[in-house]
Amino acid sequence: MERAGAKRAGFSWTGGRHDGVTVVALAGELDIATAAALRQAVADALSGAPDEPPLLVIDMLAVDFCDSTGLSVLVSTINGAAGEGGRAVLSGIGPRMARLLRVTGLDKRFQTYDTVDDAVQALRTP
């Protein structure tokens, strides 16, 4: 089941399930103007997941920009999944996002994978 979110201020998302893992693909800009939409996108995507600890891949391949507000939402998402006994990871990190994570020290906090398939495989492996 794939769902799409409305485009808002340069931000859109699609979500669905892949081998029992929720995948949210983001596109556009993650900033103060789109932070609420990003929070809602993750909540909407996870609302369709079964009643078990969340396994979530956030695909960043089409993200053009991310500021501290966007990073904050991503950190909250990963912390929230962990708080429910699940895991959330990132995939499709481009050079800019990789640099942003490195500069902020969040590269040590986020698990990242090249592709959605790699991330799903990692989450499915205990």
Characterize the structure shown.
The protein is α/β, with parallel strands linked by helices and 126 residues long. It is built from four helices and six strands; from the N terminus they run E-E-E-H-E-H-E-H-E-H. It has helices at 35-47, 68-83, 95-104, 116-124; strands spanning 3-4, 11-18, 21-30, 55-66, 87-91, 112-113. Helix 1 packs parallel to helix 2. The radius of gyration is 13 Å and the shape is globular.
Task: Give a short overview.
With 126 residues, the chain is of the alpha/beta class. 38% of the residues lie in helices and 31% in strands. It is built from 4 helices and 6 strands; from the N terminus they run E-E-E-H-E-H-E-H-E-H.
Tell me the radius of gyration. 13 Å
Number of helices: 4
Percent of residues in beta strands?
A: 25-35%
Principal-axis shape equals globular
Topology as a string of helices (H) and strands (E): EEEHEHEHEH
- The poorly predicted ranges are none
Lateral strand order in the biggest sheet: 1-2-3-4-5-6
Question: Structural class of the helix and strand makeup?
Answer: alpha/beta
- The biggest beta sheet, please? 6 strands, mixed
Distance between the termini: 25 Å
Tell me how many strands there are.
6
Calculate the mean pLDDT score and round it. 90
Q: What's the helical proportion of residues?
A: 25-40%
Topology, please?
Layout: E1 3-4, E2 11-18, E3 21-30, H1 35-47, E4 55-66, H2 68-83, E5 87-91, H3 95-104, E6 112-113, H4 116-124
Parallel strand pairs: 3-4, 4-5, 5-6
Antiparallel strand pairs: 1-2, 2-3
